[in-house]
Design a protein that fits this description.
By secondary structure, this protein is of the alpha/beta class. The chain contains nine helices and seven strands, in the order βαβαβαβαβααβαααβ. Helix 4 links the parallel strand 4 and strand 5.
Length: 247
């Protein structure tokens, strides 16, 4: 497939897991990638895998909680690719604990990375895409942001905020041809979930109708759909990719 041939995409949290899979999938469809993360070695491996697809790939180690750094990333994408067609705000962290034990630092850390940084990325992209009169902003939400989750008050709040932000942006920017949508993964087999005790993983499989955890590639394909022409009349949507868990 080459639905995204020649387009320029910026992907945050691109060093591994879902972010790496998104970079590879967008590259499969022809997009040039600017991949960013704090993990330099893993980021370089992402770049190697992307370049195997025959597209351009730039890497930039950056902290997406720094507004100026995010503005630089957007400017760099435009400089390298001549335009910015796709932004995927994927970077995220967890600091799980039950509410009575949750520290201010745990709350602030998760809200800063998972919501504040998405705001920075969305705002910076919007300025460019409005001038272009076109573009796709895709934000990573979560099942937890739709349904809540015990032990994840900070994470669920951040992802619910991402959903509200995405819908508001969709209403603001639609008239300029800019589409904003969110993807809400469930339990996906990544480094983030690998630290869960095996007992919890097995329990998750029992409550998911498909009886398994998802794979990063399954999220990436939905992101690619939202980035491509097949979703041209969709904005302000939240696509759940969770094996039916939200039911």
């Amino acid at each position: 497939m080459a639905d995204l041939k020649g387009q320029g995409a910026l992907v945050t949290g691109a060093a591994r897991g879902i972010g790496r899979a998104i970079c590879i999938e967008l590259a499969e469809q022809g997009a040039n990638i600017l991949a960013t993360d704090l993990l330099a070695d893993e980021l370089n491996e992402t770049a190697r895998l992307v370049k195997e697809k025959g597209v351009g790939c730039e890497v930039e180690v950056a902290n997406v909680t720094d507004a100026e750094a995010v503005e630089h990333l957007v400017d760099l994408a435009v400089e390298k690719f001549g335009k910015l067609d796709i932004v995927v705000n994927n970077a995220g962290i967890t600091r799980d604990t039950l509410l009575p034990s949750m520290s201010d630092e745990q709350w602030d850390a998760v809200l800063t990375v998972n919501l504040r940084a998405v705001f920075f990325g969305t705002r910076a992209a919007a300025k460019v895409m409005m001038r272009q009169r076109g573009g796709r902003i895709i934000n990573m939400a979560s099942f937890s942001g739709l349904s809540g989750n015990a032990g994840q008050a900070n994470y669920a709040a951040s992802k619910a905020g991402v959903i509200g932000l995405t819908k508001s942006v969709a209403k603001e920017l639609g008239k300029r041809g800019v589409l904003a949508n969110a993807v809400a993964p469930g339990f996906i087999d990544t480094e983030m979930t690998a630290v869960l005790p095996e007992k919890i993983k097995e329990g998750v499989k029992q409550i998911v109708p498909l009886q398994r955890m998802g794979q990063p590639q399954e999220i990436a394909k939905v992101v690619a759909f939202l980035a491509g022409p097949a979703s041209s009349y969709m904005t302000g949507q939240v696509l759940s990719v969770d094996g039916g868990l939200h039911m």
